[in-house]
Design goal:
By secondary structure, the protein is α/β, with parallel strands linked by helices. Helix content is 29%, strand content 25%. Strand 13 and strand 14 form a beta hairpin. Helix 3 runs parallel beside helix 4, helix 8 packs across helix 9 and helix 9 runs parallel beside helix 11. The longest helix has 18 residues. The chain starts with 8 loop residues before the first helix and ends with a strand.
Amino acid sequence: MVSLNWENKSKSKSLADGFKNIKKISKKDENLLINADNLEALKSLSYEYKSSVDVIYIDPPYNTKNHKFLYDDKFKTHALWLDFIYPRLILACGLLSEDGVIFISIDDNELAHLKLLCDEIFGDENFISQFIWQKKNKPSFMHKKVARMSEYILCYAKDIEKVPMLSVENSKPDKKYPLNFKNNPKKELLFKAGHVEFNLADGLIKASDMSTKTIECSLLDDVEIKNGKNIADFRMYGSWRYTQEYLDELLSDGAKLSVWGVPFRVNLVKNKIKSKMMSNFLTKATCHMPTYEDANSQMIELFGFEAFTKAKPVGLIKTLIKSVTYNKKDALVLDFFGGSGTTADAVMELNKEDDGNRKFILIQSSEKIDKKYESFKRGYKTVYEIMSKRVSLIARKLKVNFTERKL
């Protein structure tokens, strides 16, 4: 495996150690907001939450040198950014459950470095995908050579063999298809009373040869139809797609049988809905994915003004969480770059949609907001205050309890 090295790598790695004088955070049933430096908070969580987190989503600083963000996004070199993120990802890996998944938002500035770093920490064999998210409705021409419209989300598993297929939607029930399959040996099949739906008038169908030019098939018993169903068992002889045992199993699992004419062939309709594998293109065109513009509208709707610049849209984070937890609705979700609180918002709204009981832990420091921003003028002095307020507003609306903890 190719590794990434820089001058202070060993020193940076050691920051993930040193658990002396760290306050423990005990497991509780409530959702949790932690006001603290995320490195120290991750260490605190490591005591009782080791291998307990099902989904981690983070939106760390991109190192863009952007002065429009409320939070610090300026590292002088790539090495300094790596010094910052490396120990935090090591601790995050330890918190992930065996079937856990981490999503990391990033852009072009540190994508290559982050990919190599994650390959080392999580294992390149546990790389799931590099999602491409359409961040804007219209191209940005702020860059010199190309109009950028996308960002990326790296996705890794703790153990890729134990992670479910990522999915956010289900397939439609299978269309009908004939039970006959001419390449198989001929045998009898028994169709039990009331198990076949006939799209025919009530009456009697006499035992007879039901063969066509391509299929040999015989009805061995008379079939009386009443209210669109066979009132007694009947047998047929021919070449079949399934054995009797497997057909009975399908029927007990919700599949249906139907007949549409005479001479007839029995058709099978599987009624089982399957999860569809999700795409790594998260765009307006492919899946109506919201953008930064949508996120700004959400913030204005909540606060009455744009309280946080470059917040991720709820729909994006909700999609990522759902893709892992559609069959694990009591999952624990962690975001240790809490920012405006989008992840908590997404968890609460997703629970409302599918009656889930997912819990969230968000970590955010008391990073000060510059006086030039509208948020400061409206009374918010730190990023944590914005996050706390947003989570309070959503939690009150959806009647969700949460706890705040300062380290």
